[in-house]
Records
---
Amino acid sequence: MAIEFNQQIIETDGQGYLLDHTQWSEELAPILAQTDDLTLTESHWEVIRFVREFYLTYNTSPAIRALTKAMKAEFGEEKASSRYLYRLFPEGPAKQATKYAGLPKPARCI
Amino acid sequence: MTNTIAILNTRAPFSHTNAKEALDVALITGTYEIPTSLYFSGDGVWQLINNQKPSELAVKDFLKTFAALEFYDIEEIYVDKPSLEQRGLAANFHIDNVTVLDELSFANSLKQHSIILSF
Amino acid sequence: MTTLHLIRESSSQKDFSTYISLVSTNDSIVLLDDGCYNANSHWLTKLNFKNLYVIERHASARAIPLGDNAKSITSDTLVDLICQHNNSITWN
Amino acid sequence: MKNIALLVTTPPNSHLTKTAYQFALDVLASEHHLIGVFFYQQGVINGGKYISFPSDEVNVQHLWQELNKDHQLSLHLCSTAAEKFGLFPAELVNPETELAEGFSLSGLGELAALINKADKLVQL
């Protein structure tokens, strides 16, 4: 599959994850979210930027528990609860936020 | 009784996939809140040495993931001192919180765990 | 605390030096698969280890003569040994 | 009685895998309980649907399948490893249909669950 964006063809896998994370830009995130009927708010953006930064630093997408632990340090207890994150990303914060952040699909294992 | 798991790494990072596969196990047991400790001896100590550039080999830089271990509650990371010495290596690692142990302390610490997996 | 050490390869295939230092007097060693080739090898006899087991069929299949230093066991004894020790290490 | 779990990392054509199988059989015949086998690394190839052996060689996959059938022993394949070794197309919605009968697809989380339940985890 592919998305046409800014006269560029961006390849994705069957579930909508970018095949090349370097092709991502912030303008692409709302388009990726739209395919799941999700409108991104500033709260979503906090998580998306955080997940992307996590990936670029550690070369892995965080599983939910690591995500909440890492977010706690940056945003405090309230925003780092998995309940809060699931409210934002009902299909699973680790899965969905990584998709809109242009990152590879987390391993099936996790 | 609660199990604690020790993952013993004995191979250098790139020629085998063992290093990465051991790390994957650690990230999962950490995620599942099983107390997880990492041990490095023999050629396994090379996994922690500073200034490696896996991307020059077209290998995904999974070594960067070691720095995220704290988010998986993995804070016990031990290195066998004689293994460093035999290879002429200084305790110069790409992550913090690594404890270098002499031969006997390394063995005693490792063998406290109810489950030991070696890779 | 006692550990069961499982050796499955000949020492010419694997560098055991890192594992040997983990063996303490009360531990046990089991030779299985190609690990049986170590039965009479210098490094092992030098350890002069009293709790040394060999899976009999694995050794006889390989025409490995067993001396008094090793106890021959059948494969099901491995289950008992696993349960009698606190943990096990596979010399990978 | 102890709960024992088994971690298998060698492919079906390796003699080491037969030793792992023999251990599983011995646990099942003992007073202890074998709570599951987790296939990791090259071990996942044991669950490949299309492996075949010459008729005069022992087919270890059949042996695993017998244990699954006769003892309801669960045979977990690490899904990431299974994908890497090409056991099924990554996009498949029901990849389990592409595995040999008796094997199931699991995350490493299943290994963690076995570790939580087991008194002993043996790596063979």
---
Amino acid sequence: MTRTTIGFGLIALALAALAFLPTQLGAYGVGLLLGMTGYVVLASAWALFSGPTRYISLATVAFFGIGAYTVAVLSETLPYPLVLLVAGLIGLVVALVVGLATLRLAGVYFVIFTFGLAELIRQLVTWYEVNVTGTLGRYIFLPITAEQIYWQLLALAAVTLGIGWWIARSRIGLALKVIGDDETVASHIGIDISRVKLSLFAVSATIITLVGAIQAPRWTYIEPAIVFNPTVSFLTVIMALLGGANRLWGPVLGAVPLFLLFEWLSANFPNHYSIILGLMFIAIVFVVPRGILSLGEDVMRRFRSRELRS
Amino acid sequence: MLEIANLSLLYGRHRALENISVGISEGETVVILGANGAGKSSLLKAIAGLVTPEAGSRVMLDGKSLIGLPAHDIPETGIALVPEGRGVFGDLTVEENLMLGANPRRARATEADRHALIYDLFPRLAERKRQMVRTMSGGEQQMVAIGRALMSNPKYLMLDEPSLGLAPIVVTELFAALKRVQQTGVALLLVEQNVSISLSISDRGYLMEAGRIVGADTAEALKTDTAVQQAFLGGSTA
Amino acid sequence: MTQLLDITALTKQFGGLTAVNKVSFSVNAGEIVALLGPNGSGKTTLLNMISGALQATSGTVALEGDIISGLPPNGIAHKGVSRTFQLVKILPSLSVAENIIAALAFRPQPLWGRGARDQAEVLLDRVGLGGRGDEHADELTYIDQKRMELARALASEPRLLLLDEWLSGLNPTELRVGIDLILSLRQSGMTIVLVEHIMEAVRALCTRSVVMNVGSKIADGPTADVLSDAGVIAAYLGDGNA
Amino acid sequence: QDRTSVKIGYAVSMTGGNAGGAGITTIPNYKLWVHEVNEAGGLELPDGTRLPIEVVEYDDRSSAEEVVRAVERLVTQDQVDFVLSPWGTGFNLAVAPLLDRFGYPLIASAAVTDKAPEFAERWTRSFWLLGGGADYAGALSEVLAAAHASGEINGDVAIISVADGFGIDLVNAARATFAEAGLNIVMDRTYPPGTTDFSPMINEAQASGADSFVAFSYPPDTFALTQQAQVASYNPDVFYLGVGTPFPTYLAANGENTEGILSLGGIDTSNQALMDYRQRHTDFIGQAPDFWASQMTYAGLEMLEEAIKRVGLDRDAVAEELSSGTFTTILGETRLEDNQLRDLWWTGQWQNGVFVAIEPSEREGASAIVLPKQTWQAQ
Amino acid sequence: MLLTALISGLVLGGTYALVAMGLTLQYGISRIMNLAYGEVTIFAAFAAFLLFSTFGINPLMGMIIVLPAAFAFGYLIYGIMMQPLVRRSAKSGTLEVDSILATFGLLFVIQGVMLITFGSNYTSYNYLNFGVNIFGANIAANRLLAFVLAVVIGATLFLVLTRTRWGTTVRAIAVAPKSAPLVGINVNRTARFAFALGTMLAASGGVMVSMYQTFNASMGVVFTMKALVIVIMGGLGNLMGALVAGLLLGVVETLVATYVDPGLTLASTYVIFLVILLWKPSGLFGKAAGR
Ligand SMILES: Nc1ncnc2c1ncn2[C@@H]1O[C@H](COP(=O)(O)OP(=O)(O)OP(=O)(O)O)[C@@H](O)[C@H]1O
Ligand SMILES: Nc1ncnc2c1ncn2[C@@H]1O[C@H](COP(=O)(O)OP(=O)(O)OP(=O)(O)O)[C@@H](O)[C@H]1O
Ligand SMILES: [Mg+2]
Ligand SMILES: [Mg+2]
């Protein structure tokens, strides 16, 4: 109990420090923090559902884009908090529909289905804009600074990790693990697979939608090609997997170094970015086989066992 | 002659086999008895090359060492394994599974005869040639697994609990079939929990416990051995 | 004696193949009934329909008069039906105790936290895995996995327990332990339907037997009678085992 | 101040979906200009001294998020003196508010937007060199109306457009201006980016009986349309394609068959400075510049160079000078009106392997349009 | 009109199927989820272009050089990169995740090499770009060729895989790699061969694509994703499935473009894809989901 309290205390302190950070950094530093926090939330929210169930979803950018588009459409007509709320609700509704549709799919069929779905949503948004509203690009002129975006994302990150922490300790968390292991067993011990999967998917997708909505004001100009860029989905998956998708801190530990690696490479090797990134990636896969978090745990374990022996 | 000497095996830090020495002559039938987890399956897997034993272990077939030979080259030497859990190709048909059994080159010449033999031994398979093996009952799958191993024209056939999950009548038939297999000159290395019936077709038997061989004798002697009675036959020849 | 399970004209077709053909029988509360039959006669398929793993093509399954066929497996589990699988199904990424806790946490009166951990230990003890809750489920031996699976099925406090060849693969000594365990379950009032090919166990455990062949029921009655039935001997037991 | 160089930074799409366009229009010009300035000893300052250019370049990987961050990095980390614009309308808009906040001028040379006047007002240090969709569509409608009036073509037009910001801007403007010019749009289709098979649309256009075929397309589509029109033996009198047509690779791929094809942009071949630039570009880069935005990109750099020469490195002064000064560039006498370059060639045509400017036809240096387009030659 | 649309749709679909078939081999048989698949396609397109424009070797002749090179490349990549992963995952069962991550890296490496050697520009050339009349439909000869190639390769491979012992061994390693050694199958060699064969098919797709489509170094992922959609729609590892799914997509796209709205072509292909998966969760020709 006390350890949990101390843990929470430490986390609260860390959060406060992180919230304070922008005052110490320039615009670039804030931009960096912002982008990083964005991916931390994306990867963590993604892993809420996909980590324990092992359903690799590539629909991330669909929800992300929905969030951004909602802001673009409504930013002039509704007050900002309300816009976020609406975005979250739309994300939730879409997630429920999508979740219902994908219940029967498994493995790579689910993966590619979600990819197709993201592309379909992008196509439909495009078609709607072209044929109904007659404008494709939209402008967002909201007076929201990078710091404010960062703080919102930071809060969302805290909420996401909080949810993750709670889930891991709750029956739902165990249910998810059971589902990930064997769905037949899961249903035979009384787990309502559909409901568990659906609710988790909805939570995860709503958070992702909010990330898109919160980040949108940063771009001024939005079009489907920008906010429905599949790279976002891929990066999210890669970051979460790299860190270890079924641990609470795994996605964070994947997102932060990877994001910084991207940043470092593009700052220092703009012309050989691809090759170096690719080679490093391959190296990582070979050196860190089970995710960064597991690597850390392995080291810890070895350390402890040595301590015990001596 | 298949000779195993000083065979040891580690799974991580867990010692599954320790200094096992076992021999089977051509055409002979040998049964290995032991409790669950004694290491019987591990022994068969080691012979089949599926797990790598410790250095110093010896597996010799007619004087040639099999150690270090990759698993996929073992069938070619005339050793076939019906593994625990069957290991059939679930998404292929019965016919395709049997066809794959005859994949080693040594099996090609006798392929047609073997087909006939197997359909004769297991008429159920003849009825279900085109069924996806995944959709068959547990016992049916066991037949496929045995049939597939026989297809490779083995000199040494290793069976890991072949009667597991088979109806009594099929067990009787299976052992009758195994007798016929013996008559074709194939040596059998049998792991079985159904002690009485397996001893009845065996020449010799080994007793395993916690990764070691703790006893060996002729089948006749084992049937009446009181220690064996205690440990494996539940005190009576049920 | 009250009737617990009632199966009426249950049928399952796979494409052109009729795996279970209009099978009807019922099981009284507290009974242990053996479901016998040659390989491929439809026993597992029948269990699958009772537990909801498969939807019946036609016919019904009722539990104390409630129709349960048509419910999803989790619904049937909550009505009080638990099972083990012919090929053990473990939850490999969980520990042994967590395998049990998972079932405790999702039964109609869920247990969670301390209570669940204690109850899991009790159940593991009961199947002979006492003190081994922290081991990884996928590192257990086959027999121990089967034990764990039984403990998991028991965790749901079922009224009806379905065992699919749970005793197979045991050596005679272990078999005796297993039989005693199942007998102790009956003492606690559980109703059990078990599929088994080991006649020794069937004789020792089951008061009644139902025999299937090619999807249809061919015999139903007291075990001793059924096992000496000529049709059953011809189709299933063979002369040697009569 | 003992500075030894002028730091100039840019973030462009070297990889990703936009790399194809940036690799032709933007990057080569930045490289050429830097090379030339440094060959000459560097950027000249008001006191006559020269400082070499030090380049900081980043790849935005065709991501809007990345371009924003890269520009922030340029400004706050690398502390560059000036930032050159990225490629693409959306990306220019993404960095515009940022640069404005930091007080940096933005010379947007690869962004087509009708809202340029509004943006120039909103971000007073932003400059827009490539016009808006309405300009190009309006010019095209004049070309077509003139040809229709002279009886060369019927008044029917078949239009297809790519479903993204650029295509939609143009087709929206076209719908309005074509109607005003008495042209009749008989087919109006929009296709998603990434489309590779245009035969259904070509068949429909062919069946429509329109003498004019207009595609507001992107490079891959432009190439595909050219090939597939040949396959279908589709030979409308007027064949107008979008971005990509004025690319040197387009000529390389289609050779003689480019003859008579219309598109956005164009060059005045009588402009010696421009032809000289084209030669230098070809020599240095190993490939000719395109016939549309390349020249504006380069001219924008020349303006920046000249402004620095006049007022020094003070960014506000440079912006002021860009806004009000008159410059001699490869385009000739260049002056911005309300921060926008309005003296542009809106429509051009491939004639004898050169993409010449034809509209505004009354402007000096315009070539005469040649209609109808010759039929496709077998290759 | 309808016939024309159908025929051009089939031909378009054939070009899709050609690119997808290699992926179904790599993923379905070798179990490598190869995200760098499209990069190989693009690389081959560049190679064909280079051979054509600088050495005057026409793309069909060029295949004689490109295809063996691609095979060798695939063989090498499998040996160097995939084999250790496969070996490692025998215990952990993480091949899918590992191969996603590793080929994600490979994707960037190949793309980077292409960017440096070929630049980021659009590339295009004309070869066999003339119309051929088929039942009144005007079809580009290069696309027709791609279609024929797809059907021939698809049918040949399908027959080989289903009718020969070798083909059955290939499917066996897809079904139960652990059991394959028991019947004397060298899993590693077979998987490696299938992977290399898949790479070769990817390259043949690239050479064909280069004749009728503009490409640049960054476009690989488009091909990967299209191929994945087709592979999944057809049923994993099933060549016939890939062929049929590819053709179906082509026909749908053309029909929608002709009769509904070109703006909805891509949307409609995804709708078809999603609907098919909802109807058959393991693809058109996939094994019925084992429940
Ligand atoms: N892959 C493995 N990793 C770790 N331990 C293993 C592995 N396979 C088997 N073991 C352990 O090795 C020991 C011997 O196992 P083995 O399967 O050979 O026994 P067995 O005699 O065949 O038992 P059974 O009758 O249950 O089949 C057991 O303790 C088992 O837990
Ligand atoms: N999913 C399926 N698709 C097609 N056929 C199936 C399917 N499942 C089972 N079958 C067939 O139905 C029949 C009955 O199978 P079932 O598994 O119920 O047999 P069983 O009585 O349990 O046999 P065993 O004692 O060998 O386990 C078998 O012939 C089997 O091949
Ligand atoms: Mg065993
Ligand atoms: Mg069964």
